[in-house]
Amino acid sequence: MKDQVRRLFDDDGELIVLGTVEGDTPFVRYMIGHADDDLNVYFATYRGTRKVSQLEANPKVCFVVGGDPTDWRKPYARFFGTCERVDDLEMKKKLWRPLYANFFSGPEDENFTLFVIRPEKVEFMLPAENRVEIIEF
To answer: pTM for the complete prediction?
Structure first.
């Protein structure tokens, strides 16, 4: 099942809709997520964003990946997990993508902030089969 969920992510990254909470107010935004084989999902952001302060205050997140607005039968996944900042420069270099050059000077840029979401549960939605598969970590 993990392999099917992993295939929802392109090697260059995949659009995810990331949800955080500030106080009692939920926030969602588009991000580019990169999954490893264990379904840890990495994303980059600017250090001074609201999402960084939200994640520092409450690292619990939920996000959705996959699906297709033109074909309701396509699978998608809902991830629940805990987010943490990644300060390791080698990991930042490994996950650097050309897209990021539009926002940052390089992986060493002090504003380039990398996070990893460690999943606790994934709901793999299979709309064409009208079923949900649960992966617990």
So the answer is: 0.94
* Fold (topology level) of 2-136: Pnp Oxidase; Chain A (2.30.110)
Asked if 31 and 18 touch (Cβ cutoff 8 Å), the reply is: yes
Q: Could you read off the pLDDT of 75-119 as tens digits, one per residue?
A: 999 999 999 999 999 999 999 999 999 999 999 999 999 999 999
Parse the chain into domains and list their residue ranges. Answer: 2-136
- Helix (H/G/I), strand (E/B), else coil: 107: coil
Q: Which of 21, 39, 37, 38 is nearest to 29 (CA)?
A: 21
Structure tokens at 116: 């990893």
CA dihedral over 7, 12, 14, 18, signed as positive or negative: positive
E-only strand ranges, 56-111: 60-66, 76-86
